[in-house]
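re: ur question from earlier - yeah i can do the single chain one, its not a big deal. heres the input i used so u can compare w yours
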Amino acid sequence: MLLSDLVDKNRYRLVGENVDINKIEYDSRKVSKGDLFCCIVGSVSDGHDFARQAVESGASALLVERELPIDIPMIVADNTRIAMAELAAAYYGHPAKGMRLIGVTGTNGKTTTTHMIKSIAEQAGLKVGMIGTIHNMIGNESIDTDRTTPESVDLQAILRRMKDEAVGLVVMEVSSHSLVQYRVHGVEFDIGVFTNLTQDHLDYHKSFDNYVAAKKMLFAQSKRAVINLDDAHGAKIKQELSIPVTTFGITSKADTTASDIEITAKGVQFDIHTPQGSTRMHIPIPGLFSVFNAMGAVAVALEIGLPMSAIKRGMENMLSVSGRLEPLPTGSRDFTVLLDYAHTPDALENILKTVREFAKARIVTLFGCGGDRDKAKRPIMGETAGRFSDFLIVTSDNPRSEDPYAIIASIEEGVKKSGCGYVIIENRKEAIKYALENAQKDDIIVLAGKGHESYQEIRGVKHHFDEKEIVAELLSGVSG
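and the output i got, formated as tokens:
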């Protein structure tokens, strides 16, 4: 494709020849002959510093924010992230047009909500594409992913594939990072969904106000909104929006509400009340948060015209979502192991409160905090875990480039405030082994933080670490 076919001459300046490009690339290590290399200015590195390396690897043109002393065609833009998103959409033929897109944002609940919407829509006969934290999906086909919301080039590529495979509805998680980094720039969502907002990612956003502002960006490119009115930030966002808004909540006067909620270890039952009528629902995912996720999904389904019969079937045929309060096999043993991705204070509190509702004995929580991320939440996580557990095993999560013991020391400050008994075992596999070997009758062991992840990142290196596999392996050596 010629550069001139990608460039809006009213917005960008083309310097040099009008060459043909093979594909668009933003990672200099992946550049091949004929590529357009995008020099992205990031928080850690500047893509302009890798331009020569890209040219040596065969790049035929560059996208830059400033002209470089390299004899090669260049597209000059004020912001290469915005330009890359627009060029990628043009390169892939603007695939989002003609498909209905649902974007879900919030601190917690994005993954489960998107799975619920997908399940409902499929019961209504739609072919659904899903983009999110665990994996991307086209119908029943699962595609690996390494981030919640793909970079703009990768997003446009998968949207193109979805359109080519006759997908009619795309539901995707939209992270705060992706919004401020313009990964979804230019994509118009039929509905933007807000689940909730609690402290997270302040290492990146620097302040909670910035974090809120990032989430709000989704609604500037949405035709309509579905918002959790029980969340104080959701209520505030609703007041500030000029687009049509549908609300959900339990305590607030919302459009979609729930009552007569019964939570057990096997799931949750409740009456859901909507503008289209009421019905009793059972969802095989326990917890009050499941009710909120369900209300959001139902509100979306009704907004896009899906019948209540499909909604009920879709919700009741839901499978547990990988790493979301997921029970792991323990054979004939008399204790339970639950795997969950909770890695914020609010998410951890919600999970442990849910477990408390059906726990017959101790709740033993194993958790850590990620390195190179929001340090302020570490003692809060420790105190939260201690308040809602009977015993804690403090260990590593993904320490990344940080000293794992320094992370644990920060968590321990909060644990001590809670007064809960605890042990520190830095090696996460050894910590899990300790939990299994010391489990008592009817204990519930909550492995928190890793969830669906199949790796542990230590000193910048990702090591294979799948807690489902580890528990199975360790239980084979634990008498039961």
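The longest helix spans residues 288-303. not sure if urs matches, ping me
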